[in-house]
Each structure stands twice: as C-alpha cells, then as structure tokens.
Design a protein that fits this description.
heterodimer; A: about 300 residues; alpha/beta; Rossmann fold; Alpha-Beta Plaits; 2 domains; five-stranded mixed beta sheet; 10 strands; B: about 120 residues; mainly alpha; 5 helices; elongated
C-alpha cells in the first residue's frame, strides 16, 4: 500500500484580504497547496471538504471567533486531527495560552516574519506527515501489508453508516484459506507465511475501490462499497479461481484454495450493524466450508424471502 | 471624500516598504499602497460617524498586515491608535483625534512612496 505523498494542503482562515495576499506571496515556492477562507463559516466548510493538514487561523474573526472555530474543529471527527496554528495580531500571553490549551499547535504573531512563517508551517506539516504515517502503520498488517483488523472494524462501521445515510447497498465477504493448518504442518511456517502473502496479493489485486484487510490468522475481510451481493459474488469467485490457479515455487503440484462467505446489506433481517453483517458473512463462509471448501457461498436475501412469502 | 476628511498634516515625507527590493512582494505591495486612499476614507468615515467597531476592525487589520508589507510604522501607529481607542471612555473620538491624525499621516506617507506617485 503506497503512503500518501500528495502535496499537503494549508487552509488560511482570516477575514482580511491583506493577510491572504501576504500569505500567498510568502508561502509561494513552498511544497504546499494554499487555500483561503474569509469567514469562520466558510473556513469550517472548507476544512471539512479539503481536509487540509494545517489550518492557519485568525483569532479575531467576526461571528464565530478563532477560539470558537477551533472548538468546532476539535469536536468534529472529520476535522479534529487537523493541525491548527493561530495567526493573530494579538500579543496577549493569555490568548496564546488559551489557544494552545484548546489544541492549537503553534502561534504566529502578525505582522509575521516570512522566514519564521515558512519554518513554522513546514514544522507543522512535518509533524502531521509523521503522525499520519504512524497512524497508517498502526493500521497495517506486518506480514501482508494489508489493512489490519483494527482498521477493518473502523472501516466497516464507517461504510455501514454511509450505506445507511445514502441508502446504498454494501457487500461484505470473508475469505478463509482452506486447510491452512495442514499447509503449515506439511511445509512449515515460512511457507504458510508465503501463502498468506500471496493470497493477500491476489485479494488486493481486485477492484481499486475494494477494501481488503487481514481479519486474523488465515482469514481475510473484503468490503465492497456500493456493490450488491450478485456483483460481490462475481468478484469473489474470480479471486477464488485466482487463488486456486496460483503457482507455488518448489511445490508445482500444490493447489491452495480458499472459501468465501458473502453477504450484503439486504441479507439482514434486523438492524444493519457491523456485528450483524459479520455474522451473516461468517454463516455463509461456514456453509462454504461445509460444502467441501474452495467455493463461494452467499447469504440469502431477506427482503426477497419476505416478498416471496407475500 | 467628505469635508471631515483629513489631509496630510505637513509636506508629505514618503516612507517605503522594507521589502521594496523583494521581487515576490513587489506586486502585492503596490496593490496594498493603491488601496490606501480607500482605507483612509473608511477610517475617517467610521471615526466621524462614531462607528467604533468598524474603525477598530480596519485598524486591527492594518496593525496585523502593515509590517508584513514592510511598513513597521503602520503597525506601530495602528497599535498605538487601537490602544488609545480601547482605553478611551464615552468621549473616545475626542480622546483619539491626535492618534487618528498621526495614523492617517503615516498612511499618506506610505501612499506617497508608491512606485507611480511621481515623488522621487
């Protein structure tokens, strides 16, 4: 998985055009994309939309002042990790203390020195980059490079929430490598690790929008956004075949297989929750195992069943 | 311009930006200077109409920006003017007339120093 190397964004929120022009001139040539907002309301909207790494925030904004806006940014999950630097003409130490205590990471006094401004923005961007990298690494599986269980749980919850809000369908698949213990026992753990790496590589070679995670042990979770169970089944069937056809160095006759259980949001009878989706996918996976392994089994569509009975 | 508007108090002695030689600043300094008459008018209108809030806002903006454009005198005078307004009570206009004159004079001097002013 590639780390995010896109140009970092900086959002300046200040009601003075004089300051925006100055920032644009002074930050020209820096490796960043500068955006501007001239009111706190516009700033809040742009912070959510652009997800900048750093916000340069004036304290003396009309309406919602800088402190109030900082509180809003810190309260919102989407914006709470943005680094905020206060940039203000105030020289009151208590304002600085208040801002830093509220979660701002730095304070620049207007009028600012160009070199100091650049250095402080660069420092904030460096810190943000490292924080994001650590966050991302903490969510990756060390062996396969896929997202780990922690990320999977968070992401499934997010995706379900989005599916509910936008009334979109969502498919979840669980994949389990067949007879993995036997492979480990017969060929050794290093070979078992190689199998997991190869399967991970095949699973992540599907559609770019699919979210592939190592769920635990030899089990993988796949989240297919805006995808119904029929399409999810087609995708997993292709992946199943690719695993079955994979070649294993040093063991040309070996065939490794995997079983899949698939469900979508319309397979659930009660509330749409991560637990309910996982249970439905796990039940389907169990059926695939019971059915002789190396196959895809899909959960039944509850709505269809209800209509059938009418 | 209205009749209350202040004129430069003495023969204008231009001041220049500390960043006149900085190519990356030339264009925006020029815009800043060209906008000075509009800002003087706003300051004077706010002052004479008693619109303290509007006056404080524009002075605060110039305090924050002046030095950034290379005019430290604009920042220091704005700071002094802002402080006097905040300290003054009900008769704030009377108490700050001198500070207003000094501040507007600094703005006129900056404007006189712009590239196309004809002053040498």
């Amino acid at each position: 998985m590639a780390e995010n190397k896109s140009i970092p964004k900086v959002l300046a929120i200040d009601d003075s055009e004089l300051i925006h022009r100055l920032l644009e001139a002074r930050l020209q040539g820096e490796n960043l994309e500068l955006h501007s907002a001239t009111s706190s309301e516009e700033g809040l909207k742009k912070a959510k939309l652009l997800q900048p790494e750093v916000v340069l925030l004036d304290i003396g904004l009309e309406g919602m002042n800088g402190f109030e806006l900082l509180t809003k940014l810190k309260e919102d999950n989407e914006t709470q990790n943005i680094a905020v630097i206060f940039i203000s003409a105030t020289v009151e130490p208590m304002d600085r203390v208040r801002g830093l205590d509220m979660g701002a990471i730095d304070f620049i006094t207007k009028p600012f020195d160009a070199l100091e401004l650049k250095a402080r923005v660069r420092s904030a961007l460096r810190t943000q980059y490292l924080v994001k990298m650590l966050e991302q690494r903490a969510q990756l599986d060390g062996l396969t490079g896929l997202w780990n269980r922690r990320y999977f749980d968070q992401r499934l919850e997010q995706e379900i929430s989005e599916a509910k809000r936008h009334k979109r369908v969502l498919t979840l698949a669980l994949c389990d490598v067949d007879r993995f213990k036997r492979l480990n026992d017969q060929f050794g753990h290093p070979f078992g690790d190689m199998v997991l790496e190869k399967v991970a590589q095949i699973l992540s070679g599907g559609r770019t929008s699919d979210i592939v995670c190592r769920y635990g042990g030899e089990e993988f979770g796949l989240i297919f956004s805006s995808t119904n169970i029929e399409r999810g089944r087609e995708v997993t069937e292709r992946l199943r075949v690719a695993i079955e056809e994979a070649a294993w160095p040093g063991n040309p006759d070996l065939v490794v297989t995997a079983s899949f259980g698939v469900c979508d949001t319309e397979c659930l009878d009660g509330d749409l929750t991560p637990e309910a989706m996982l249970k439905a996918a796990d039940t389907a996976l169990y059926k695939a195992k019971q059915n002789g392994r190396n196959c895809v089994k899909a959960a039944a569509r509850v709505l269809k069943k209800k209509q059938d009975t009418i | 311009m209205n009749s209350n508007q202040l004129k430069p108090t003495k023969k204008t002695n231009p001041i220049f930006s500390d960043f006149s030689d900085d190519d990356s600043m030339g264009k925006i300094i020029q815009i800043f200077l060209n906008e000075i008459p509009k800002r003087i008018e706003l300051i004077e209108t706010s002052f004479h109409s008693g619109n303290k809030e509007q006056l404080c806002k524009i002075i605060h903006q110039l305090k924050g920006a002046g030095g950034g454009y290379g005019f430290k005198l604009i920042t220091s005078n704005a700071m002094a003017f802002e402080k006097k307004i905040k300290q003054a009570a009900d008769n704030w206009q009377q108490a700050t007339t001198k500070a207003l004159e000094e501040f507007v004079d600094i703005l006129h001097r900056a404007y006189a120093g712009r590239a196309d002013s004809g002053d040498t």
